[in-house]
Design goal:
The chain is mostly beta strands. The protein is 0% helix and 48% strand.
Length: 116
């Protein structure tokens, strides 16, 4: 599998915003379906949002209305816009994406820290 490259994490105050990006290394495949996962210290990894091949998105309840997942027109990149961030959103965020053959790849993760 081709690794995914994530960016956009960082330190932000509560109520702030960040936008995460994820793309296959070298933009070598078009993203069909994708998801963002996060893992906080001492907790299990959870899926935060996903996008289907038709562009439908789904979110866990705790981020509905605050996070928006989208995909670039060329299907080369997926994004996670995170608004009104809360300390409980602090985690390492990982991207997962599949190509047209259903082969999946993961990113290395990007740290999001929400703290005053």
């Amino acid at each position: 599998q081709v690794p995914l490259v994530e960016s956009g994490g960082g330190l932000v105050q509560p109520g702030g915003s960040l936008k995460l990006s994820c793309a296959p290394s070298g933009n070598i495949f078009a993203i069909q379906v994708a998801a963002w996962y996060r893992q906080a210290p001492g907790k299990q990894r959870e899926m935060v949002a996903n996008i289907t091949d038709t562009g439908r998105t789904n979110y866990i309840d705790s981020v509905k209305g605050r996070f928006t997942m989208s995909r670039g027109n060329a299907r080369s990149t997926v994004y996670l816009q995170m608004n009104n961030l809360k300390p409980e959103d602090t985690a390492v965020y990982h991207c997962y994406a599949e190509d047209i053959l259903g082969l999946g790849s993961w990113g290395q993760g990007t740290q999001v820290t929400v703290s005053s």
